[in-house]
Every structure is written in structure tokens, then in C-alpha cells.
Amino acid sequence: DAGVIQSPRHEVTEMGQEVTLRCKPISGHDYLFWYRQTMMRGLELLIYFNNNVPIDDSGMPEDRFSAKMPNASFSTLKIQPSEPRDSAVYFCASTWDRGPQHFGDGTRLSIL
Amino acid sequence: DQQVKQNSPSLSVQEGRISILNCDYTNSMFDYFLWYKKYPAEGPTFLISISSIKDKNEDGRFTVFLNKSAKHLSLHIVPSQPGDSAVYFCAGGGSEKLVFGKGTKLTVNP
């Protein structure tokens, strides 16, 4: 069975541009999580969804960040406008019924 | 405020010996804990978990120990293999959410 799929794997863009990260969770999973990994802060939870509904977005750093899950097989994380301090690796993870989370391979984002 | 701390950024062991990775937590509401392994350019992969009502869980070469009174858990890998070289994260959970430590980089030397 396919794992969590994230795209793109790498993104390099200039400050001020809109960035969209995409995630396809494992089929049948009802929870989806977005994380950000940096050297300073480690792996931190940004937002998570249950059955496509956002449950907790307290980790979203600013209003420049938004996330959607229009259906059970797709989610996006948008940053608009992007800033250099947003540079990080962004991970998506999914799980079923509070089981261990399965992670995608991440998107390495660089904002110049 | 770091709820989950991995105080050793790195650990180096010889192949065949035991690797012990440590993790401390402050949140008494955690009711389960997990260990993940991460290779470069890949996402974290689930390794082993333990419920807060247990003090030990074993899966092959991997054993996790939980000391609730000390708010401490450890991962033992016996015997260590070069393929175990990776970054290991511990995480605590009290709901659907997980709180991760910053990781320990394990190097197993042949």
C-alpha cells in the first residue's frame, strides 16, 4: 500500500511568493497532521485534521499560514507571503484511530 | 517549554554492542510514548511504542522501558547494527497529538 505522499520534495522560491505544499494521506486514515522541522525547534505540530475537519491549529505560526483538507485524500499547506524564516522541512503524517502516525518524506522549503 | 527532552544530541556505539537512547518528559498527561527512526531525506518511521500503564515493551532487537516516577523512557537496541545508524525521536501523546523530542543521532560503527 502506498505511504503518505508529499509534493514537491524540494521548493526554492523568493520571499513574498505564495508557497503551496501538498499531501496525500494513506487511504482509510482519518487523521492528518502537518509538522515543521527546524534545527532550533525540532519537529513541531502545526495543525491537524480529523475526518477532513481542522481540530487544532494552535501550532500555526502566523496568519500567513493556512491549511485545508477538501477531501479525505488531499490536503494543502499554504504560506502567503513567504519569508526566509519559513525555510524548513515540512512533513505530513496520517493515522487511523490514534494509531502510530505515518510520515511522508517531507518538503524541503527554502525561501530566499 | 520543552515537554519532551532528548539530552544527548548524538551517540556512537560499536556494532554488536547495546545502544541506549534516553528521553525525559514533563507532561504527566501523556498516556503513551513512541520512538521513531529517521534516515536523511526521509520521513520519520515508527519503531516501537509503550502505554503508560506498562513499564516495558519489546519488539525483536528493540526494547522500550518506561519509568513513570522519574518521567523517563529509554530505547535499547541489542545488538546494534550499522543499519541502525539514524536519528531517533521519542514522542509523548495524550490525545491524537504527539510532542516530539529533538532527536538523538545514533552512529553504529562496523
Supply the key terms:
heterodimer, A: 112 residues, mainly beta, 7-stranded mixed sheet, 4-stranded antiparallel sheet, 11 strands, globular, B: 110 residues, 6-stranded mixed sheet, 5-stranded antiparallel sheet
Write the layout of secondary structure elements.
The complex is a heterodimer of chains A (112) and B (110).
Chain A (H helix, E strand, L loop, with lengths): L4 E3 L2 E4 L5 E6 L6 E8 L3 E9 L2 E4 L8 E7 L2 E6 L8 E8 L6 E2 L3 E5 L1
Parallel strand pairs in A: 2-11
Antiparallel strand pairs in A: 1-3, 3-8, 4-5, 4-9, 5-6, 7-8, 9-10, 9-11
Chain B lengths: L3 E2 L4 E5 L4 E7 L6 E7 L6 E7 L4 E4 L2 E6 L4 E6 L8 E8 L4 E3 L3 E6 L1
Parallel strand pairs in B: 2-11
Antiparallel strand pairs in B: 1-3, 3-8, 4-5, 4-9, 6-7, 7-8, 9-10, 9-11
Question: What would you say this structure looks like, in words?
Answer:
The complex is a heterodimer of chains A (112) and B (110). Chain A is mainly β. Helix content of chain A is 0%, strand content 55%. Chain A is built from no helices and 11 strands. In chain A, strands 2, 4, 5, 6, 9, 10 and 11 form a 7-stranded mixed β-sheet that branches. Chain B has 110 residues and is mainly β. Helix content of chain B is 0%, strand content 55%. The interface between A and B is medium-sized, with 21 and 20 residues.
What helical percentage do the residues of chain A reach? Answer: under 10%
Shape estimate of chain A:
globular
User: What is the residue-mean pLDDT of chain A, rounded to a whole number?
Assistant: 95
Task: Compute the average pLDDT of chain B.
Answer: 96
- Give me the strand/helix succession of chain A: EEEEEEEEEEE
Roughly what fraction of the amino acids of chain A lie in strands?
over 45%
Low-confidence stretches of chain B: none
